[in-house]
Specification:
Blueprint (H helix, E strand, L loop, with lengths): L3 H14 L12 H12 L14 E3 L7 E12 L5 E11 L3 E3 L1 H12 L2 E2 L1 H16 L3 E10 H4 L10 E8 H4 L1 H12 L4
Helix pairs in contact: 1-2, 3-4
């Protein structure tokens, strides 16, 4: 549960610590706005990501790759509390059970709406799909831009971070991994 009062107190202290007046007209409502923003940004903390994949369907006949590509997401880097955002690509090979495609996008939303690092986010998505659906294989690729790299620190706008996680056949068979990569790149320049 988000504690609005603590966030507002902390923001007032930050405003004062940078040499500003927390009672100045333009800043007086900022602590409350930031508390509301954090509630929205971090709503995934109160959700169980596994629950979203529990509603599925038995489908014994489909044993081919299922991919949802270009799922947009927004997250907050836990190191600097600055946003990172991009797209996630998810694929799995069913082993008798499929899930509604929107559930995969919802899984990305829940896990990204927490203090995160991209590497963990990628692995968490793959692990939860693997554990919950028990497919023959899972592949996840995330491409993201990190404001902690573009507006501070090394200041490298245009840098894209790519992470991947492979489970089952996506890890053990190079051909399966290559098919997944080819399909998520299909139609791109």
């Amino acid at each position: 549960m988000i504690d609005h009062d603590k966030i507002q107190q902390a923001v007032r202290l930050i405003i004062e610590a940078i040499g500003e007046d927390s009672n100045r007209e333009g800043l007086i409502g900022t602590p409350q706005r930031i508390a509301q923003m954090y509630e929205e940004v971090f709503w995934g903390l109160e959700q169980d990501p596994r629950q979203v994949l529990l509603v599925g369907f038995e489908e014994e006949r489909h044993k081919e790759m299922v991919i949802v590509r270009d799922i947009p997401f927004y997250s907050m880097c836990e190191h600097h509390f600055l946003p990172f955002h991009g797209v996630a690509h998810l694929g799995y090979i069913p082993n008798g059970r499929i899930v509604g495609l929107s559930k995969l996008a919802r899984l990305v939303d829940i896990l990204s709406r927490r203090p995160q690092v991209q590497e963990r986010l990628t692995s968490q998505i793959a692990d939860i799909i693997d554990e919950t659906l028990q497919p023959d294989g899972v592949g996840v690729v995330i491409e993201a831009v990190h404001l902690c790299m573009t507006m501070r620190g090394v200041k490298k706008p245009g840098s894209v971070v790519i992470t991947s996680a492979n489970r089952g056949l996506f890890r053990s068979r190079a051909a399966t991994r290559a098919e997944f990569i080819s399909l998520i790149q299909n139609g791109r320049r």
